[in-house]
Amino acid sequence: MTDSQKAYEVLDEQLAARGIDVGAVKARLAQQAIETPSWGYGDSGTRFKVFPWRGAARDVHEKLADAAYVHRLTGAAPSVALHIPWDRTDDWVALKQEAESLGVRIGAINPNVFQDDQYKLGSLTSPNPAARENAIAHMVECCEIMRATDSHLLSIWLADGTNYAGQDDLRTRKQRLEAGLAETYRHLPLGGRMLIEYKFFEPAFYHTDLPDWGTAYAMALKLGPQAEVLVDTGHHAQGTNIAQIVAFLLDEGRLGGFHFNSRKYADDDLIVGSVAPFELFTVFCELVSAGEMADNVAYMIDQSHNIEAKLEAMIQSVINCQVAYAKALIVDYAALAEAQRAGDVLGAHRIYMEAYETDVRPLLAKVREEKGLYPDPIAAHRAGDYAQRVAQERGVAASSGSGYPSA
Length: 407
Ligand code: RM4
Ligand code: MN
Ligand code: MN
Prior knowledge:
Distance between the termini: 48 Å
Shape: globular
Radius of gyration: 22 Å
Structural class: alpha/beta
Order of helices and strands: HHEHEHEHEEHEEHEHEHEHHHHHH
Strand content: 5-15%
Low-confidence stretches: none
Bound molecules: beta-L-rhamnopyranose, manganese (II) ion
Strand order of the largest sheet: 4-6-8-9-10
Mean pLDDT: 97
Helix content: 40-55%
């Protein structure tokens, strides 16, 4: 028996003794799916410097190949989000087939209305009617791409906002936002969902038109049942309780999905769970305890690497989502409810902590082995030659296909 197998035997016994149905937990872990972002495979960085990574994907085809590789190693990343126009191609049906032939599928379509000169003062909320019209036209184009690629998600993030008090009228901008989203909503494919992402600042520094979950939620309510809120874990003010936001939106049936990443200060786009793993655990606890209410939530990573090697950073993020989910699955929710009813403050908290402090790595290794995967995807990646191969084939991209500014 290997050390990992021995550790699993011990853990299996401990969990069973706690009354956890280990077979059911393993079945749920085996089903977990996290979408990776195409833009996480190309060069990206900060506004100060983009350090090119040898082997970074240069176009959408290489991004799909990398995403498929991450899925082969983790068994948990079956779809790829696209960013338009970064990933634009002239044959969407062919791209969909290409993804499928690689073993992945196209996930959320992300319109990009923040990199064109015309959007200097905003997109859907711009004071310039032509910019607003073009932004809507781009959203409609993205709905067409959804149809062609069989994607069910239109994932909208706007950079709209102002830098100075008085720069534009806040109420008028709110009305333009509503009108632009409503026009877009009308073009969603049948069964398609609009995910509305919020972020409290950056690139705008005085006000942002979609600053928080409440604004996104209010918009979703006005638009209709196909509109939901997307929570990007990096988009909150310091100290915000993200688990509470998740609980509220789940209970109202308006949690559309996540963009997972980590941040220490602002929107840092670091490896998921690297800064605040306990927060990530509390988010997954809300999802697990909500049961069927969380069935349609879309799990996506939104990461932009600066100094770390891209492929292993993405693999690590998928693993960290698995760890958080595994820990949330082994919370004794029946005992928790009992402690909560009894008003046992510390007792209830300790039930959470018992799960959080459990080392679930042997459990995940077992689940992977049962799926025919390597027990440790990072070790497998480092032992394999994929990174070396793409480094040789692709070299250092002169100008990256990521679309990232200055990359
Ligand atoms: C934004 C936001 C969006 C992402 C862009 C690249 O900060 O998180 O989801 O598409 O960055
Ligand atoms: Mn995001
Ligand atoms: Mn972001």
